[in-house]
Amino acid sequence: MHRLRTCAARLRPLTAARTGRGTSIQRTPVPAAAPRTFRHIRCYTAPVAAEPFLNGTSSNYVEEMYYAWLEDPKSVHKSWDIFFRNANAGAPPGMAYQSPPPVGETLSGLSQVQTGTQPNVEKLVEDHLAVQSLIRTYQIRGHHVAQLDPLGIMDADLDSYVPTDIITSSDKLGLYGLDESDLDRVFRLPTTTYIGGSETALALREIIRRLEAAYCQHIGVEFMFINNQEQCQWIRQKFEKPGLMQFTLEEKRTLLARMIRSTRFEDFLQRKWSSEKRFGLEGCESLIPALKTIIDKSSQSGVESVIMGMPHRGRLNVLANVIRKELEQIFCQFDSKLEAADEGSGDVKYHLGMYHRRINRVTDRNITLSLMANPSHLEAVDPVVQGKTKAEQFYCSDTEGNRVMSILLHGDAAFAGQGVVYETFHLSDLPSYTTHGTVHVVVNNQIGFTTDPRMARSSPYPTDVARVVNAPIFHVNADDPEAVMYVCNVAAEWRATFHKDVVVDLVCYRRNGHNEMDEPMFTQPLMYKQIKKQKGVLQKYAEKLIAEGVVSRKEYEEDIATYDKICEDAHARSKDEKILHIKHWLDSPWPGFFTLDGQPKSMSCPSTGLSEELLRHIGSVASSVPVENFTIHGGLSRILKARCAMVESRSIDWALAEYMAFGSLLKEGIHVRLSGQDVERGTFSHRHHVLHDQNVDKKICIPMNYMCPKQAPYTVCNSSLSEYGVLGFELGFAMASPNALVLWEAQFGDFHNTAQCIIDQFICPGQAKWVRQNGIVLLLPHGLEGMGPEHSSARPERFLQMCNDDSDAFPKITEDFAVRQLYDCNWIVANCSTPANFFHVLRRQILLPFRKPLIIFTPKSLLRHPEARSSFDDMLPGTHFSRVIPEQGPAAQNPTGVKRVLFCTGKVYYEFTRERKNRNLDESVAIVRVEQLSPFPYDLMKAETDKYTQAELVWCQEEHKNQGYYDYIKPRFLTTVSSARPVRYVGRGPAAAPATGNKKAHLMELERLLETAFNLDSFKGQS
Ligand SMILES: Cc1ncc(C[n+]2csc(CCOP(=O)(O)OP(=O)(O)O)c2C)c(N)n1
Asked: For the chain: N or C, fewer Cβ within 10 A?
């Protein structure tokens, strides 16, 4: 019983003083899982009393066998085969069981029973089942008692409760109907365990010892929730086989060398810059060998590119020792006197990204490692990494993720707390979003800034979120580097084998405060008293290896001195750096797209028009079903027919405009990817890019992929119901290549606010912070159409408020002004009123010699508005996107006779023209459409205001005054006219909600708005 006692001693309840837990927050013990599964079989067989071996503890095992038997009767022992046959045939209680055939040799060596009498055979079966159930208990709940906390004061699952069915003392054997006298009995091992190695039967004492070794030491394996037998077996095999944790001398030395680098790097930074924030790794130094092990193993299985995302903790160390960024480049980031060479804000050193190609020393193969730049917003980078990984896989036809993979690092508090983690997990198995498995590594230092995990999460582990996708979770005590290395190897192998996510939970501690300046004793006094006493992991491991004779103390000290010197030399070199180049920290270079010094190759944009022939061709694809034997819905046939008629008459609606833009880019070899909720059909049922056969499930056709023989592929994918995760993903996808049009469409524009972090932290300032351009397009359905406060506004005011064009300085108008102002802006905001202009702005995105995010407010009712059509003439060669569409009617013929110019944007234009006609004001009111809101088309707006010298200038919008465009337009308008003329406002008054929920109120507001716009006396008397 020695082993059992060790376990029991270890698991004695912790006192409040030791744990730092007050009694008030002690968790209620969770009762052991009630046996529930067996009832399923019992309900049509027999009461328990009649078949006593079917007791609660064995029910899981029996059920497992039952299902195996259903699939293959030969897969279970003969006795069970007979039992299940009889039970299934409706044998009465007690009659289903029959003595097994003579056991002969098969039972020799097993516990002896009195032969011949049924009760003893039953006892034998019962005891075997009990043992099997015990084995299963360790597989399911062993991790709860594993020694995961290096400090020995916390329970990684936040609960000191020891599951009742884990054998912590011999009296607990009673739960299984066994007792101490059974410990030396030999039991046959079920096929669901590998603890026997080459043996098929073991003494109970040895069974428990091996289970403890596999499940209750420094590794806690959570996997029994995975509903896949093969995967469970695979994991059991990886952790149960005796003698698994053996490492060669070479492996141990490599591990020590990696620990030295990891530890001494932080020590060096601490010595040199003791008062700088660096979010050091102290307390989790084994993260570096952990990552390197995952990378080595993955490289061995053919991975050539690893894309990583991580938070602040240990980031500099990862850059130095995993990515192998030159140390001087890292050290010079600490020099506050260095001037920045690049434009833009730049970012703090622990947010910057990196891209590096090198030889993996272990495998001797090339590997590209990139660490994505990220904002402070924890976990926000997760979907971005996944999107970039997916894109890289896509562009190298890596359909199974064999060549490109992602690794995501997390803090324990953030992993549990941030919803985007869950959103990202839910993308992991979707065909158009899967990266074929991500290795997640949690730096679980058991604290989040100052917050105790018991106050920070309601789940036992910070990693429970991963269970939703059936990812196995390997908890490991990070003070045991060999155990860490072992689980990382298994994690990488898991990914290579099953192409599914896996989590490594490095249970560690944080030696300093949240940052190096922070005092942790204010809030975690007991924990930090222990931490102060805690020997560093490097020292512990080195002592172990010295004791084992793997290295000598002298060798160890020499290795330390060698690495310290590497750091000192790099530090000396870093002083020669005169200028800080953020572009050296680029995580996604686009080779060949810019000139060698990173500039655009021109400052012009060719015509975005297309030949009539091509327009016709794309139109015909858009109105056809390009495959044989495909039955589409009758309603869709009518839509396609209508498209055909439009093409015949040389005119297009919104959906066709999009078709023309996408189709032509595909033909030019540009990959187009459109993602978002219900984008395949289109929320408003206008798009229909995926046709569904009405008779065959999953038989679909994407006509866009039948454009022409050598076209680029078109991806259109309905996403999960997420904005944050999916927009982040698409942003990442768009980072991988400039030669792709990547679009995300919100179901309604206002839903973008649940992705606000991606917009605020990445899309808007991405280039300024990280010198990284991105051409993502956001399609945001917008417009007040009486649908209520939601579904109405895409919040143009928010996007416009974040534009970097100056509202008070009229720019110098050069010949290339239109393109240059795009180059200078942080993003483009547009609201098109015609299909042709929508077509041009999409094509311009790719024909520009640089990339900028494009925010487009897209229409809803205009999709079917008979006037919202464009002629082929507006899309022919030589045509361009119109930033401003001037008045073209009678008012423009005689501008001096015009009394009022209404400037507007988007769909209200159609309401205004109708009202103007009704009021016979075509000659006295001009209507000018601003199609590109930002960067503000100063040059064209000046031309328009100069044209109508006698007219009142009015900005008209349907949105409320404090929303929409007004606050953005007004100062720029005034700058345009040098404040010499007033700019009037027509629109709804200020309001808290974007729109009324009352249809009648909506119509009255519109009426009032039109009245103010067309009553030429409405501003009379106002200065
Ligand atoms: C979304 C978000 N909310 C709040 C913060 C502020 N913050 C920075 S670090 C931190 C604690 C993070 O704890 P954990 O995830 O456990 O990582 P650790 O710092 O312990 O490595 C917090 C709350 C943040 N950076 N991001």
From this structure: C
State the pTM of this model.
Answer: 0.89
Element (H, E) at 858: strand 854-858
The mean predicted confidence, pLDDT, of the chain is: 90
Structure tokens at 473: 């979770």
- Nearest ligand 1 atom to the CA of 410 is 15
417-447 pLDDT tens trace: 999 999 999 999 999 999 999 999 999 999 9
Which structure tokens are listed for 493? 């192998």
SS3 letters for 795-853?
CHHHHHHCCCCCCCCCCCCCCCHHHHHHHHCCCEEECCCCHHHHHHHHHHHHHCCCCCC
Using CA of residue 230, residue 127, residue 243, residue 464, what is the dihedral sign? positive
Beta pairing partners, 210: none
User: Would the CB of 452 count as within 6 Å of ligand 1?
Assistant: no
Residue 653: predicted pLDDT? 97
Give Rg (Cα) of the chain.
Answer: 34
Q: pLDDT tens digits for 246-259?
A: 999 999 999 999 99
Residues 304 and 403: beta-carbon distance below 8 Å: yes
Q: Helix (H, G, I), strand (E, B), or coil: what is residue 252? A: helix
Question: Is residue 853 a contact partner of residue 763, using CB atoms and an 8 Å limit?
Answer: yes
Q: Which two tokens stand for residue 717?
A: 């994918």
E strand residue ranges, 6-74: none
- CA-CA distance, 575 to 601, in Å (whole number)? 34
The tens digit of pLDDT for each residue in 347-384 reads 777 788 888 898 998 899 999 999 999 999 999 999 99
The answer to whether residues 864 and 653 touch, using CB atoms and an 8 Å cutoff, is: yes
- Residues paired with residue 856 on neighbouring β-strands, in sequence order: 779, 830
Phi, psi of 856 (to 5 degrees): -120, 125
The per-residue pLDDT for 338 is: 63
Is any atom of ligand 1 closer than 6 Å to the C-beta of 313?
yes
* CA separation for the pair 545, 534 (Å, rounded): 19
Output the CA torsion sign for 832, 835, 839, 840: negative
What's the half-sphere exposure (Cβ side, CA atoms, 13 Å) at 988? 22
Q: For residue 841, what are the contacts with CB-CB under 8 A and spacing of at least 6?
A: 830, 832, 854, 856, 881, 931, 932
The position carrying tokens 């944080």 is 510
Question: How far is 930 from 881, CA to CA, in rounded Å?
Answer: 12
Rounded CA-CA distance 143/945 in Å is 74
Nearest-CA residue for atom 22 of ligand 1: 449
For ligand 1, the distance from its centroid to the CA atom of residue 455, given in whole angstroms, is: 14
Supply the pLDDT for residue 94: 56
Pocket of ligand 1, candidates 449, 455, 758: which has the most ligand atoms within 8 Å of its Cβ, to mutate?
449
Q: What is the 3-state secondary structure (H, E, C) of 124-150?
A: HHHHHHHHHHHHHHHHHHHHHHCCCCC
Measured CA to CA, the distance from residue 865 to residue 271 in angstroms comes to 69
**Max CA distance (Å), the chain:** 117
Q: Is any atom of ligand 1 closer than 6 Å to the C-beta of 761?
A: no
CA distances from 879 to 472, 607, 843 (A): 56, 6, 12
For range 916-944, the mean pLDDT: 98
* Interval between CA 448 and ligand 1 midpoint (Å): 6
Distance CA 960, CA 1016 (A): 21
What angle, rounded to 10 degrees, do the helices at 835-847 and 654-667 form? 20
577: pLDDT strictly greater than 80: no
